Amino acid sequence: MKNVLITGGAGFIGSHLVKFFVKNYPDCNIINIDNLTYAGDLNNLREIEDQPNYRFIKQDICDFSEAKKIFIKEKIDSVIHLAAESHVDRSILDPFSFAKTNVLGTLSLLQASKISWKDNFKNKLFYHVSTDEVYGTLGEKGLFTENTPYDPHSPYSASKASSDHFVRAFYDTYKLPIVISNCSNNYGPYQYPEKLIPLFINNIINNNPIPIYGDGNNIRDWLYVKDHISAIDLIFHNSKIGKTYNIGGNNEISNNEIAKILIKKIDKKLGRKSNKSIKLIKYVDDRLGHDKRYAIDSSKIKNELGWEPKYTFDRGIDKTIDWYINKLT
Ligand code: NAD
Fold it and tell me: 6, 82, 182: which to mutate for ligand 1, most atoms within 8 A of CB?
């Protein structure tokens, strides 16, 4: 029986991961710690909350002493660490909370692992889930590889870059067994509606303005959340210690294109006149320090672990829109 600690399991990606592990690994105990910020919601986990191999503990990861107690009491063997402040706009308004949760919170968990495992790291693993935003921004060409130098621009990406560095430092200094993955933008059901895709979907459904930063030509690589979960699953079970993997969807799409795709699909699904909602688009002042383009080279995880995304953007976005329409109408 393995005791797997998942942090941030009440959030968007974390709740998909917890549900996947609880259902697919009945011989593992899944312990979810989350302090339920505005972004965490236990309703995301209703379908598995009574399973015998699942346990939720409301806990702030920054509290090292309590974190350490949980590691010892629950006999934690491995960690998949997702808890974070994750919204770039919030990081611009309040960078301190990002440094606290993302940097000090990660350090607290690293130290709790090291101490509770008493430097005996056999069959132990600390898996840190990170973002492609640590690499900064790209011009019109090129892709982020695992060797791209870190160049974060927002307080969010700076805090995630710092947490990645701490995780590697624990590997280099103490030989703590770690892996890191850096993933592109996720979308899918259960995402808090301040992020671009659920915000646009909500606003189109409710006939509210669709705010697009700057000229709308910023490009992101989009990955359906279940494809991220399948990559985490593979890395968790099969990666060699100390490795880093980039995860991406091969879906480079500008914010303008995203808005148009969503308008077309939602107007059709709601039986509205074709493209009726195009008038909702409203260009607003650009985000400070807005990165122009992200794009991921996922060839390492494909070649070494055999991972590939299974959802085309068309299929993933249909499932996402249907989920929000079902929830909101
Ligand atoms: P989210 O904001 O939806 O969820 C974060 C969760 O962490 C919430 O449940 C929140 O309550 C919890 N949390 C926050 N501070 C905490 C603290 N101090 N102690 C305990 N729990 C705390 O985030 P998400 O989009 O699901 O992202 C999860 C992870 O994946 C993050 O580390 C993020 O950097 C990374 N990531 C996200 C994306 C994306 O597109 N969403 C892409 C790549 C990487």
Answer: 82
Q: Are 225 and 187 in contact (CB under 8 A)?
A: yes
Separation of 320 CA from ligand 1 center, angstroms?
19
Atom index in ligand 1 nearest the CA of residue 14 equals: 26
Q: What is the pLDDT of residue 1?
A: 63
Round to whole Å and give the CA distance between 303 and 292: 28
Is the model's pTM score more than 0.90?
A: yes
What pLDDT, on the 0 to 100 scale, is given for residue 60? 98
Q: Is 60 in the pocket of ligand 1 (CB under 6 A)?
A: yes
Within the chain, which residues score under 50 in pLDDT? none
Confirm whether 74 is a catalytic residue: no
**Where would I find the H helices in 179-312?**
196-205, 225-238, 255-269, 299-305
Residues 77, 247, 300: CA angle, nearest 5 degrees? 90
pLDDT of residue 62: 98
